[in-house]
Amino acid sequence: MTPPELSPPDRPPPTPEHVEAAQRLGHTMKRLHRLISSRVMRGMQDELQGHDLSFSQVTALHQLRAHAPLSVTQLSERTRLSLPAASHLVERLVKRGLAARQENPDNRREKLVDLTDAGRSVVGRMDAEFVRAYVTTFTGLNLDTITAAERHLQSLLDELEPLSPPCQEHP
């Protein structure tokens, strides 16, 4: 999977030092992810099993939360599913009450898909489990370490977010 291009076209290409620093950060983030992922995945697995959801359905719920309303074609592209698979996935989410379809006012032949309150609740519970996994892991660390890490990660996000496609953030 190729990462999305985040550099604006008017920026010069990265220097070898930038590439090396980004690789070090990537490896550091991978180490952090390894420490957290088992807790995150355990919480996600509970939610998947509790609602009998597939990983593709969870991916679709997150894409809808970030970018809805989406056409089935757009959801297919964002989830990397074929159009028939995305259409079937949407049908299952609608039947479970996690998503709703509505007519596109600009193109009556097209349906737009959005989350229902129940769908937002499922994604919200997954987010809460994700945060809980980090809190559980970080609570035992030195307060100064936690504060410094949060400050540096916030700086990273402040620079990165304007380069990323916009998404709707819900607490």
Instruction: Return Rg in Å.
Output: 19 Å
Outline the low-pLDDT stretches. 1-5
Major β-sheet profile = 3 strands, antiparallel
Overall geometry comes to globular
Helix share of residues?
A: 55-70%
Mean pLDDT: 87
Count the helices. How many? 6
Strand order of the largest sheet: 1-3-2
Tell me the strand percentage band: 5-15%
Distance between the termini: 28 Å
Taken in chain order, the helices and strands follow as HHEHHEEHH
Helix/strand class: mainly alpha
Query: What is the count of β-strands?
Result: 3
Describe this structure in words.
The chain is mainly alpha-helical and 171 residues long. The protein is built from six helices and three strands. A three-stranded antiparallel sheet has the order 1-3-2. A hairpin with a 2-residue loop joins strand 2 and strand 3. Helix 1 packs across helix 5. The protein starts with 15 loop residues before the first helix and ends in an 11-residue tail after the last helix. The relative contact order is 0.12.
Task: Output the keywords.
171 residues; mainly alpha; three-stranded antiparallel beta sheet; 6 helices; 64% helix; disordered N terminus
Topology:
Elements (H helix, E strand, L loop, with lengths): L15 H36 L3 H13 L2 E2 H8 L3 H13 L3 E6 L2 E9 L1 H22 L4 H18 L11
Antiparallel strand pairs: 1-3, 2-3
What's this model, at a glance?
The protein is mostly helical and 171 residues long.
